[in-house]
Amino acid sequence: MQALVLDGINQPVQLREVPTPQPAPGQVQVSLHAAALNHRDVWIQKGQYAGLKFPIILGSDGAGIVAAVGDGVDKSLLGQEVLINPGRQWGSQPAAQGRDFQILGLPQDGTFAEFVCVDAQQVRAKPAHLSFGQAATLPLGGLTAYRATFTRAQLQAGERVLISGVGGGVALLALQMAVAVGAEVWVTSGSEEKISRAVALGAKGGISYKTEKWPALLTKQAGGGFDVIVDSAAGPGFNDLLDAAAPGGRIVFYGATHGDIPDLAARKVFWKQLSLLGSTMGTDQDFAEMVDLVEQHQLVPAIDQTFPLAEAEAALRRMDDGLQFGKIVLEIKS
């Protein structure tokens, strides 16, 4: 089969012929029609990820058709259109993943290929209203957004929510899901264009995080502080989120692209009775509930740009440069 292979740190991905994987007992082989990028792929390529091994086929997100099944797998799955849950071996405790938890695309070869083999329980029927490309954008980003926003932060209809750094796939999916359940959504971004595009997706408004004293300005515009704040940056700007939060608010973060939080204003946390929540990926139940929400509300993920598989290196550079609004997709089969 054709696959994109990464041979080492800071190397470009190379499209080459590799052996087609065959399903082991309990697995299915998926003929991939589309895959989607995540920042995880860029971090692995740059050597900024734990457990590196080479060569590796990157890719955590994918959608396609079940082409073969291993021993012990229900043959009725053959021919089904599916999307893949990239998380496996979460463990027995829903509260946090166990030591054996893995994400597709490292250490197991991922979805930047014509075929991938995964455990049968990792596939879920593709929402019928979505194309393969649209469905491929959901797994990692949708799972991360759902668990952070609903399982961890327990967002409810009618609450005011702030999503920081809108433009990336997870943030936009959190925006769409929160709007769908009846929350009032506001956003921040360093780009006025991205704020405008978020408003077109249902946000009430937003502000540039480069604006001096933006929390005071935004909370005045929104009519109060935010019950839930969803963040992926952390870093020095995290204290601004404490100012933007309503008393009793929940701040959930699923990443730290701006690094650790220096000099946390602890007095604001306890005086405002705030909850700080970490979140990573999600359980099989989170994944199922996420897909159900997408189907129920007929949500269509935002796609930034679609590249052919052979141009994946250009796609990775677009993500690395932070130019995208929505998910970047690789078309594998038209």
Automatic annotation (TrEMBL):
Task: Give all residue intervals belonging to the Enoyl reductase (ER) domain.
Answer: 8-330
Species of origin: Hymenobacter psychrotolerans DSM 18569
Q: Which Gene3D superfamilies match?
A: Medium-chain alcohol dehydrogenases, catalytic domain, NAD(P)-binding Rossmann-like Domain
Which domain of life does this protein belong to?
Answer: Bacteria
What Gene Ontology terms describe what this protein does at the molecular function level?
A: oxidoreductase activity
Q: Which InterPro entries match?
A: ADH-like_C, ADH-like_N, ER, GroES-like_sf, NAD(P)-bd_dom_sf, Zinc_ADH-like
Q: Which SUPFAM superfamilies match?
A: GroES-like, NAD(P)-binding Rossmann-fold domains
Designated name of the protein: NADPH:quinone reductase
